[in-house]
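Researcher: I'm preparing a figure for a lab meeting and need a structural model of a single chain. I don't have an experimental structure, so a prediction will have to do for now. The sequence is pasted below. Please return the structure as tokens so I can convert it later.
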Amino acid sequence: MDLSLILAIAAAFGLGLMLALLLVSRRRGAGNDDARSDIQEVSGRLAQMAESQAAVQARLAEQMQAQERALSKAVEERLADFSKRIGDRLQESATQSQTTLTDLRERLAVIDRAQKNITELSSQVAGLQDVLSNKQARGAFGEVQMGDIVASILPPSAYSLQVTLSNGKRADCLIHLPNPPGPIAIDSKFPLESYEALRAARDEAEKLQAGRAFAAAVRTHVADISRKYIVPGETAESALMFLPSEAVYAELHAAFRGVVEDSYRARVWIVSPTTLMATLNTVRAVLKDVRMREQAGVIQQEVHTMLDDVVRLDGRVGKLQRHFEQASEDVRQIRISTEKVTKRAERITEMEFETPDGTETELDSQLETQLDTQLDEPPPPQPALGKE
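Model: Understood. Here is the structure written out token by token.
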């Protein structure tokens, strides 16, 4: 029930009670009869008001019960909907959590594998550092790297590893090129210690001193290669110095241009893994061109032989064509003869040579004999086909 209706009923009840009290107070001084009649009237009104109030209370109770039932139903629906939404949200959250945990496990597995790779790489780097710290191992490392590059580009017949020259010096690799320029020697050098000292310099004085040591080491290697691996009449007039590190090669060409020019004058070309690949690709093209020039005479001889075969084949085809033409002419002559024979036979069959008594004449018999003889004679011999 509405709150305004309840207040209106309460106000009406209070107003009636006040009216009753007012009537009683006005008529208190009157007679007893009037007092009793007023009391009875007030009692009647009070009874009516009580009945009205009871009816109102009954309606109010019914309305309150209906509203309570509607409210309970609405609350239950709201609770059911809220429970469903909460359940859906919990299910979605659980699904998302499961997906997140799965992704997290996969990423942790990837991180674990990456960690293992990093650990292995660290051990390999440590092993590489151990290798590079030893001069002999460092030299073997450069030789292996150079050998792998050469083997990946040139055919086995185009190079030799660890070749001893006539002066008793052994080159790491010898590229077999025709004269000129002749075989080219490649030797691996790795001035790592002086380079690391140069990179570790903390001030200009240390850097200058380390730079001088680095330049001196490279010049020493260049002089050794020029003296050992350039042999007149046996090798080319130049040689290659292989640096296994691109960083050392870049530092040398960036900050020590004078050392590079000195190597040019000594006819020793300094190469890195990348520039060695480019050089070997050029060498491979040169070797291919040389092989093609060597095979040019053989190719020309084969072409001349092939032309002779073509001429001979053309002559044989001409002879065969003449044989075909002669055979065609012979067939044409045979056709003419058969046509003549056929026409004569037709004319003979159209003649009548019988006597009155039904016997054949002697002329008929002679013609028949002559025709049989012509038909039984073999064809004239054909010229035999020529043989090659």
